[in-house]
Amino acid sequence: MSVKINRLSNGMRIVTENMPGMKSASIGVWVNVGGRHELESQNGIAHFLEHMAFKGTKRRSALQIAEAIEDVGGYINAYTSREMTAYYARVLENDVELALDVIGDIILNPIFDPNEIEVERGVILQEIGQSLDTPDDIVFDWLQEVSYPDQPLGRTILGPADKVSKFSRDDLSGFVKENYTPDQMVLSAAGSVDHNAIVAQAEVLFGDRKPGNRPAFVPGTFSNGERLENKDLEQAHFTLAFEGPNYKSPDIYTAQIFSTAFGGGMSSRLFQEVREKRGLCYTIFSSAGAYSDTGTLTLYAGTSGDQVAGLAEITMDELKRAADDMSDEEVARARAQMKAGLLMGLESPASRAERLARMVAIWDRVPDLDEVIARVDDVSTAMVRDFAGGLVQSQAMAMAVYGPLGSSLSVGDLQARLAA
Amino acid sequence: MSVKINRLSNGMRIVTENMPGMKSASIGVWVNVGGRHELESQNGIAHFLEHMAFKGTKRRSALQIAEAIEDVGGYINAYTSREMTAYYARVLENDVELALDVIGDIILNPIFDPNEIEVERGVILQEIGQSLDTPDDIVFDWLQEVSYPDQPLGRTILGPADKVSKFSRDDLSGFVKENYTPDQMVLSAAGSVDHNAIVAQAEVLFGDRKPGNRPAFVPGTFSNGERLENKDLEQAHFTLAFEGPNYKSPDIYTAQIFSTAFGGGMSSRLFQEVREKRGLCYTIFSSAGAYSDTGTLTLYAGTSGDQVAGLAEITMDELKRAADDMSDEEVARARAQMKAGLLMGLESPASRAERLARMVAIWDRVPDLDEVIARVDDVSTAMVRDFAGGLVQSQAMAMAVYGPLGSSLSVGDLQARLAA
């Protein structure tokens, strides 16, 4: 393995992996801050900050930031999740130094020009509008909200329009000061990269920053709940969440194998039962998402209003059946899908840099491929059945549905069906 | 270059490129058939066929198709466009032979079981519903419709629900017989692949098929037109199309460079004027799409109903300004973006296989990188200004808008603004 890790004296971690034969690289900084580090009054500010990073620094205007990267044909972007904010660029190999210079600049030196704050507020309000116009996007926000009610983890990333309308320059600066400290950052790069050069440059850019002392965030507590919004759409967008393991849990691979076999591909049970046998939907999938202290197994399907209650019942029946008779062949297939997906992901600089950053953020090291594969191989059919059985037994679930609602549908009904 | 091309005696072309260091491959068959090869009564059948390919063959049930690929951790998918239907898989290197066997099977041997046709009809009707629930998806269908009215090229890929509800087994078989002939197919593979082995296997799978004799499709004729649908959404989803070059035109690189500089990235004029300076939208972009006989330069922006007419006017003003003063720096930056994008794309087996297939389908050969870069470098600032000037002068444009419409907006108004 050519993974190299360093830690600056202020706690910032740097991880790189050189990929022979590559002529490009992906490089970025992953900051351990996201929606769940916000107070309720701050909801949306982590994402607002991510936008403002691109709106001008002490050294570059917004236009100069864009031009610096695009002059060399590169690409720069960012995202905010519940626990992480990432700023990353994809460039050709000779431009890695430039990319890191720009990324360091926008993270460390944003000036929060009051005029630019007002302009960007308009952009984010449009982004909120776009999300509201995308039913299979907004319904997942609602699912999160009912899974973790009245908790930071349950709030949206974008925040509500009324809060986004009010954030001030001081709000932004205060949030940066508390959260954008080097001990919360991982610099990650993969592709055609030189570890020592990146470490030296990081020392210059980030080395004089002091570590922070941020309070721990509020732990997430999964809750049963539901939100059904009747709306005149073509489809009822149906989502369900079960509580799953956090990403450090020994069960995490079992949850992922279960999710793959249950609803992760064309041969999965949900795809076969709901789409292939009955033709009830075009899109149906499950996925296992994890946070540092909790996790959720989520399902999505888009179907007609008069079919959604029936579809929900089928998912319950399939869950019970999986607990009873998930086969060795299905579990072996899910293992093969996970392992091949991992191998193929490693062939792309962008997904490799993302994985390195996440591993270092979580584990402070990067488990090598053999170690991960061994853990995937350790997941037995009995473990997968037991995992499904645990979901059946606990009956803990949250549901969000958006669209035409043909017949009655409730978490209580679904729990009763599980118990039957 | 390690690109290798063969042609079977029945006209099927095979193109592969081995990528040293890769442990996986992407392989697929690109068939020269799509929405524009349909009669009006057949609208949606090319896409219906793509779905039926996965629903059982002489050798495999639908479940066995999915299991064959997913047992080895691979991934199989397909898409239908206006001119092309592609079936492709991503697998680890030892499973390339298996993947080609499955792809050949689903393309050549679908059985069109009547029960499966009925089930899949339901799936496709759900897919149509999903598209209708996605405003920034459906508005592009409308834009295509008003750009090429009453022509095969203007119709949707999915087809209207009433036609999809009626296709019969004979309709499907007839369409296959006419269009799925080996002279219309390109087999393409990239990654860890062995050209000779793939050619030998293709000969066995496809070698006994006879070439076809399909009539030429109806040429596309771009037309001014508009479709505005008032709807209570958060955003007005605004799209515009100008006529552009076809993909064999000498102007194609000029159109792409213009599109990149005009609305292709963060430093582009539209992004800067509309989003960065005025905060009117979150998403705005232009892109240059091309067919074999025509092309379109399209714009998209999502904004508020009361801002959409103003936003449309700004795009007209920016187009005029681009014709006057697009700078050497902007054109150089767009060239750099295109070249770097090309280089980075080549690092992924999937995008490389796609490019190989398209190049062979269009040119019967794969231009090497230096040749493409030379053509990009040949595009001068004067050529880009002239291209923009041609759009201003012709005033030919089509528009589709979906959402709240605050004030009056018409192609006529925009043409008048261009002429002013």
Please bin the fraction of helical residues of chain A: 40-55%
Helix and strand sequence of chain A: EEEHHEEHHHHHEHEEHHEEHHHHHEH
Shape summary of chain A? globular
Structural class of chain A: alpha+beta
Strand content of chain A: 15-25%
Poorly predicted runs of chain A: none
> Major beta sheet of chain A, specifics?
6 strands, mixed
N-C termini distance of chain A: 51 Å
Helical segment count of chain A: 16
**What radius of gyration of chain A results from the CA coordinates?**
23 Å
The quaternary structure here is homodimer
Number of strands of chain A: 11
Query: pLDDT average of chain A, as an integer?
Result: 97
Biggest interface, chains and residue tallies: A-B, 75 and 75 residues
Spatial strand order of the main sheet of chain A = 1-2-6-3-5-4
